[in-house]
Write a structure and sequence with these properties.
The protein is an alpha+beta fold. It is built from 14 helices and 20 strands. The protein has two domains: 303 residues, Bira Bifunctional Protein, Domain 2 (BirA Bifunctional Protein, domain 2, 2-Layer Sandwich), CATH 3.30.930; 92 residues, 3-Layer(aba) Sandwich (Rossmann fold).
Length: 414
C-alpha cells in the first residue's frame, strides 16, 4: 500500500509540477503546467503521426454544437445527465460537446461518397466536456474536460467494419507496446454487450445486436485474445471492446475502446454510392486509440512512477557546470542540444554540485551532464544517467546522436 501511495499520479503530478487544479477554475478541470503540457504534447504528436501513417484523416471540429444535433444522434436522451446544461444563444440551444461522433457524421455528409473512398477513417484530438458527479472526480483519471484521441471509421459493410475493428485493436496493441504495457498484465480486454430487455438504455434492434455481438466475439476468438464478456456495458448504439486498466489503488477504468455502431448510420443517413450505382447504408466503427490524454497520462505517471522514458521526459538533459568559469561552455552545449530539439536546462552554479545533481534526480531527469575542468580541456562530456550508471569521455556531438537515436526509436532504455 505504501509503494502504491508513492506511485499515485496525483502525488507525483504535484511533486513534479505536471498539473494542478484550482477551485476558482472549477472542480475536475485540470490546469497543465509546462512540464505536464510537454508530456501530453509528445503523446499527441505520437498518436497523430501514427494514425496518419495508418491512413487516418485528421480533422478539427467545434467544441460546441446545437442541442438538436445530440437529439438526432440519440446522445441527449441517453447521456443527458452527464452533459453540461444547454447554452442559449440567439434563441437557440447549444451544448458543450460530450462526444465527437455527430460532428464527424456531419463532416462526412458535406458531399456524396463512393465505395472507393471507404473505409474512411476520420480522426481528431477532440476536447470534450462531461459533467461527472463530484464524488466521481479523481485526479486526471476522471475529469470534466478531456482530450480524446477519437475516430469514426465509415465502412461499406459489416465485413469491412469488423476488419477495421481488428485494425484498431492492432493500433492499440502497438501503442501499448510503445508504453511497455503488457496485455493481461497491465490491461485486459472486455467485450461489452447490450441487454435486449433494457429498451431505455439501448437502441431497439435485437437482430442487429445479436449479429454485432457475434461478429465481435468471433473476431476476438480469431485473434486468440483472452477477454471477459460483460452484459449491460455496451454503448447505446452497439457492442464494444473495452481495454480495461487499473490504477495503483485498484480502481478499474476503460482506457481505450472500439465500438460497433448499427444505429447512428441510419439516423444520420450515412450512405455511399456502391459498385452497382445505387446508394447503400454505411456502417460505423467508433474507436479511441490512446484514449483520453488525461487518463493515459494518469496511467503512465503511475506505470513509470514519474520516471518517463527519454522521449516523454519533460526535461531530457540537465547540465551542471561545476563552477562559474564553466558556465559559458555549458551554454554552448545547451544551445547545441536545444537547436536539435532536445529538452535541456542548465542548473547554474548557485548551490553545491551535489545539491544540483540531487535536484535533477528528484526531477527524474534521464541524463545529467557534469561539466568541469577535465571535460572542458578534453572537449568531452561526463554524463550521469538516472539509473546511476555513467557515460564518460563522449563528445557532445556523439552524445547528441545517441539521444536522437533513442528518442526516435522511443526506447525505454537509457
Amino acid at each position: 500500500m505504501e509503494e502504491n501511495k508513492d506511485k499515485d499520479h496525483k502525488k507525483i503530478g504535484r511533486e513534479m509540477e505536471l498539473f494542478t487544479f484550482s477551485d476558482s477554475v472549477g472542480k475536475g478541470l485540470p490546469i497543465w503546467l509546462p512540464k505536464g503540457a510537454t508530456v501530453r504534447r509528445e503523446l499527441e504528436r505520437f498518436i497523430v503521426d501514427e494514425e496518419i501513417r495508418r491512413g487516418y484523416l485528421h480533422v478539427r471540429t467545434p467544441d460546441i454544437a446545437k442541442l438538436d444535433l445530440y437529439k438526432k444522434s440519440g446522445h441527449y436522451p441517453h447521456y443527458q445527465d452527464s452533459m453540461y446544461a444547454p447554452i442559449v444563444i440567439d434563441d437557440e440551444e447549444f451544448m458543450l460537446r460530450p462526444m465527437t461522433c455527430p460532428h464527424h457524421f456531419e463532416l462526412y455528409l458535406h458531399k456524396p461518397h463512393s465505395y472507393r473512398e471507404l473505409p474512411m477513417r476520420i480522426a481528431e484530438l477532440a476536447q470534450l466536456y462531461r459533467y461527472e458527479q463530484s464524488g466521481e472526480l479523481m485526479g486526471l483519471q476522471r475529469v470534466r474536460t478531456f482530450c480524446l484521441a477519437d475516430a469514426h471509421i465509415i465502412c461499406k459493410d459489416e465485413t469491412q467494419a469488423i476488419e477495421e475493428i481488428g485494425n484498431a485493436l492492432d493500433l492499440i496493441e502497438y501503442v501499448t507496446s510503445v508504453f511497455n504495457l503488457k496485455l493481461d498484465v497491465d490491461y485486459r480486454y472486455r467485450l461489452s454487450l447490450g441487454d435486449r430487455d433494457n429498451h431505455e438504455k439501448y437502441y431497439k434492434n435485437d437482430e442487429a445486436w445479436e449479429k454485432g455481438e457475434d461478429l465481435m466475439r468471433k473476431l476476438m476468438q480469431k485473434r486468440g485474445s483472452k477477454f471477459e464478456e460483460a452484459k449491460d456495458e455496451a454503448a447505446f448504439y452497439g457492442p464494444k471492446i473495452d481495454i480495461q486498466m487499473k490504477n495503483v489503488n485498484g480502481k478499474e477504468d476503460t482506457a481505450f475502446t472500439v465500438q460497433y455502431d448499427f444505429c447512428m448510420p441510419k439516423r444520420f443517413e450515412l450512405k455511399y454510392m456502391g459498385e452497382d450505382g445505387n446508394e447503400h447504408q454505411a456502417f460505423v466503427v467508433h474507436r479511441s486509440s490512446i484514449g483520453a490524454i488525461e487518463r493515459i497520462m494518469a496511467f503512465l505517471i503511475e506505470k513509470y512512477a514519474g520516471a518517463f522514458p527519454l522521449w516523454l521526459s519533460p526535461t531530457q538533459v540537465a547540465i551542471v557546470p561545476v563552477r562559474e568559469n564553466h558556465e559559458e561552455e555549458a551554454e554552448k552545449i545547451n544551445q547545441l542540444l536545444k537547436n536539435n530539439s532536445i529538452r535541456v536546462q542548465i542548473l547554474h552554479s548557485g548551490d553545491s554540485i551535489g545539491k544540483r545533481i540531487n535536484h535533477a534526480k528528484a526531477e527524474k531527469i534521464p541524463y545529467v551532464i557534469v561539466l568541469g575542468d577535465k571535460e572542458m580541456s578534453a572537449n568531452t562530456l561526463t554524463v550521469e544517467k538516472r539509473d546511476g550508471t555513467k557515460i564518460e569521455n563522449i563528445s557532445p556531438v556523439d552524445f547528441l546522436k545517441e539521444l536522437q537515436e533513442k528518442i526516435n526509436s522511443k526506447s525505454l532504455e537509457l
